[in-house]
Design brief:
alpha/beta, ADH-like_N, 2 domains, six-stranded parallel beta sheet, zinc, Rossmann fold
Length: about 350
């Protein structure tokens, strides 16, 4: 044993702690210990980082995927990517934020997640939170907004400015979920004609309320419905539901030189060659790729700055629809159950400020 070991143990004993909710195995949600709470060391910001006291977070499908595929049994992992909170401390060389700023962001997979009282986050990924939204309303927005923006800008090559696109049509497969709900709004903002799919009256009403020009019933023949509307072919397709199930539809519906974006991994081979003859493109959009590969992180913060402005100006509205109170095993379990049921309109949020409404 090193002579320094007792001193290290003593320092760890008196290191500030924080409460976090996480997992330590790939449990089914029905299991009693699917989530557990622990006291863990409160982090300190390194160079280029912020320490944020988290006010609210939201649950995303990637959180569920991470939980069910977790194989490091016995090792505690905190999930959660989206957050809104207050800057409590700054690392060196942080110029765009000060202590006390209200910020929002989505994090990266390797780090301790947002289901905790505090988190350190690279400043490049962060933006000042919308002033006109509550913490809970803003917490719904980061991951899905960046994904929607990337679909329009990176995958489709469009400029995300008001009425920058004319006479172009976008088909959104699954317009009622988190990404679809903000994509409808951003697409309308830039001037696209938006056709979205829905599975029930509630989803249809939700999508129409967000601005969709047409809503199709995905239980029925989508190609036939598109033709009846006068759009047998479309310029852009965003598949936010099931790449395998809708591949043939997309290939047969996209216009020559059109563009398709997907966010859900295929489980079997797809015939990408079918797009060659018409010069169409397919692009994967995965928001976490920037953080995972430390690629152009500032772009993510810049996108959120633009989203915050559009929210404050009323061009976009929050997609938060369900709210749970308090950072706890029970609130996270209930919020996750809603998202895992695949029938969510918009986003599910957890407000950590139990004494505030």
């Amino acid at each position: 044993m090193s002579i320094l070991t007792p001193f290290k143990n003593l320092m760890q004993r008196f290191q500030p702690k924080m409460m976090a909710v996480g997992i330590n195995h790939n449990a089914e949600l029905s299991e009693k210990d699917a989530f557990i709470s622990r006291q863990i060391p409160k982090p300190k910001p390194a160079e280029g980082e912020l320490l944020v006291k988290i006010s609210a977070s939201s649950v995303n499908p990637i959180d569920i995927k991470t939980r069910v595929n977790y194989h490091l049994d016995g090792i505690f992992k905190v999930l959660g990517l989206d957050a809104v909170g207050e800057v409590e401390a700054l690392g060196k060389n942080v110029d765009d934020f000060v202590v006390g700023d209200q910020v929002f962001y989505t994090g990266t997979q390797p780090q301790i997640g947002t289901n905790a009282q505090y988190q350190v986050i690279k400043a490049a990924l962060v933006a000042h939170a919308p002033r006109e939204l509550s913490a809970s309303q803003a917490a719904a927005m980061p991951l899905t907004s960046i994904t929607a923006y990337d679909i329009l800008h990176q995958a489709f090559g469009l400029t995300v400015e008001r009425d920058s696109v004319q006479d172009k049509t976008l088909l959104i497969i699954n317009g009622a979920g988190g990404v679809g709900s903000i994509l409808i709004q951003l697409a309308k903002y830039i001037g696209l004609t938006v056709i979205a799919t829905a599975g029930n009256k509630e989803s249809r009403a939700w999508e129409e309320g967000l601005g969709a020009d047409h809503v199709l019933d995905y239980h029925e023949d989508l190609a036939g419905q598109l033709s009846k509307l006068g759009y047998p072919k479309v310029d852009y397709i965003a598949n936010l539901q099931d790449t395998d199930a809708y591949w043939d539809l997309m290939v047969n519906t996209i216009k020559p030189f059109g563009r398709i974006a997907g966010i859900v991994t295929n489980t079997k081979p797809v015939d990408i060659g079918a797009l060659k003859e018409i010069g169409a493109q397919f692009t994967w959009v995965f928001i976490l790729a920037r953080g995972n590969f430390n690629h152009n992180l500032q772009e993510q913060g810049d996108i959120l700055t633009k989203i915050a402005t559009l929210l404050d100006e009323g061009e976009l509205k929050s997609t938060a629809t369900k709210f749970y109170q308090g950072l706890s095993v029970e609130s996270l379990k209930q919020a996750t159950k809603i998202v895992e049921g695949h029938h969510t309109l918009g986003k599910v949020v957890i407000d950590y400020q139990e004494d505030e409404q």
